[in-house]
């Protein structure tokens, strides 16, 4: 009996709680970007949202570049429990990425080093749920496809060249 009790206690102690990732949240006309406090809906291009442990509302980002910069930053208010980005393969257009068009960042393909401007005018990191859609984007705008973990630091953290000739995709 004593052995069963000890085994039960050990199993209970070893049980890991599995956190369930929250669903993505649609942005609205009132949703503000985390870094700049500007309205997310007023800027074209892909968006990001990051959910933090213990905080009910996600942090929104007007550019995926900004969301990736936050992910790469060691300074955070809480642990990250989920990250979503706009699936640009399903977006109506660059100017209308869609408030509900989200895909999990950890399964998305990201186009880096394309000469395209995000919603805030900086070079953008462009996410796609479908690798074929990412390749079609690359054939038109250049760049290369990488998973989230392989996005180079300089794609999100490098200084911005305000004189760069960046294209706004159609």
Automatic annotation (TrEMBL):
Note the Pfam families from the entry.
Answer: NosL
Q: Which InterPro entries match?
A: N2O_reductase_NosL
Q: What is this protein called?
A: Nitrous oxide reductase accessory protein NosL
UniProt xrefs under Gene3D superfamilies: 3.30.70.2050, 3.30.70.2060
């Amino acid at each position: 009996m004593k052995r069963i009790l000890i085994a039960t206690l050990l199993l209970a102690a070893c049980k890991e709680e599995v956190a369930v990732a929250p669903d993505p949240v649609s942005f609205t006309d009132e949703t503000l970007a985390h870094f700049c406090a500007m309205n997310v809906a007023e800027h074209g291009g892909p968006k990001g949202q990051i959910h933090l442990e213990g905080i009910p509302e996600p942090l929104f980002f007007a550019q995926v570049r900004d969301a990736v910069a936050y992910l790469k930053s060691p300074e955070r208010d809480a642990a990250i429990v989920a990250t979503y980005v706009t699936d640009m393969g399903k977006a109506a257009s660059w100017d209308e990425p869609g408030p509900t068009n989200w895909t999990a960042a950890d399964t998305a393909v990201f186009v880096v080093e394309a000469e395209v401007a995000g919603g805030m005018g900086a070079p953008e990191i462009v996410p796609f749920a479908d690798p074929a859609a990412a390749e079609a984007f690359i054939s038109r705008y250049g760049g290369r496809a990488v998973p989230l973990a392989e996005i180079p630091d300089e794609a999100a953290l490098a200084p911005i060249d305000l004189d760069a000739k960046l294209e706004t995709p159609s």
